[in-house]
User: Fold this.
Amino acid sequence: MADTFSMADDQGGASSAPAYEEYEQSLSQQSASSTLIIVPDLPRFDLEQYVGNYSGRMKVTRLLFIGNHCPPLAVEALKAAISIVKADRDVRLYRQAVQSLQVFAPSDPDARLDEEWIEKTTREVKQKTDRLEAELKSYKNNMIKESIRIGHKDLGDHFYTTGDLASAYRAFSRMRDYCTSNKQMLDMTLSCILICIDQAQYTSVQTNVAKIRTHMRSDEDLKIHQPKVNIAAGIASLAAGNYLEAARYFITTSPAIGNDYNNVATMNDVAIYGGLTALASMDRNMLKLEVLESATFRTFLELEPHIRRALTAFHSSRYGECLSILEAYRNDYLLDPFLQKHIDKIYEAVRTKSIVQYFIPFSCVTLDAMSTAFGVPSEQMEKELVRLIEGGKLHARIDTQNRLVTSKETQLRVEVHRGTLAMAEEYERAARLRMLQINVVRSGLEIKPPKGQLSGPGPMGGGVLGGRELRSMMFGNGA
Assistant:
């Protein structure tokens, strides 16, 4: 393998090196420690139907994720994952799945490593790797550019299928110098994006997204690839906690993509990711204009009607209903590898916005009324309000004796009145200037400027009246 890759560097592979180095650096910086979240109750979805919507490694990724986080589904999910990875000859994932199954069902036949299969598969994978590298070396000796590109692609596909993602990324990156068409560049970059998503290297996803945009030049390219780029960029923005940016990527994704990208995300995922991030980051007017009235996103929302109901409830100020809908699907979202780390933040953001929006029309409201509206005990509601007030997110006071929440609206009203008066004065000033200019023209007092100069009154124009004269006539010498 070393000989083949060194030849790639000698024969023009230098430009792909920075991309791979950036990928390796991002991989090395990924945190190995994370808190394991356990979902003790069954989700609302049917496991077989749920994973049947995905293809490629994403199906295995989701099965393993569910198996490791949801004990009631662990055995079913892990046994299904073992069956798939054995067919794909991914020894590393096979060991991982068996190790997890040993925790939940140690006596299950699949919970014992098939050492014979491991040995046989490892040998066959190495033989195929050696053969593909020998073919690539031959292509390079013959200087056949298209054959070299295909050789790198075959190696990348082989490494990807068998679980060697780092080598797969390196092989795909080295295709760049041998691509002779825009389509080849697009396909190569999409392959790199896929691996980065599988490895949760979202900085590298964003880098490759920026690259692929420079190659989408025709309408056909945009039609085919823009939805995939939007989904990849949306997932990267979601991972970074930039929910508004993520929402706009998802809600502008064309439904024409169908199931063409289900090795990353399904149309149902786009609806869920777009709806949740929009709820967390957009106000009611933005939700109406950009989400609920979006002809593009409506198709996705039809696949997940509960997301549409939550969005509609929030926009209609039925905040308690919105929050209860989201809470009913919490377990489902905690079993999504892209959403799990963000669910608490997203739900908290939606809840905070709901409380703030609920309070806006009132100058005073009882704690009991708010606790009823949000379906929580009064004591919990009071604690939430205290937290929001102390955090500067809610401008209100709590009267604990009378159990009232009153608005700090005096200063706000003063600011509104002051701004309104300033705006009215500006309109009046502009109207006076406009009327004076019209009267000057009607009276024939305007002097046409010499050719090449600006017209109109003022120091830069040729009119007889400049800015000082206008102000003097309108407001007197004191102006």
Q: What stands out?
A: The chain has three domains: 2-26+37-238, 313-407, 410-475. The CA atoms of residues 93 and 398 lie 55 Å apart. Residues 1-20, 23-33, 456-464 have pLDDT under 50 and may be disordered.
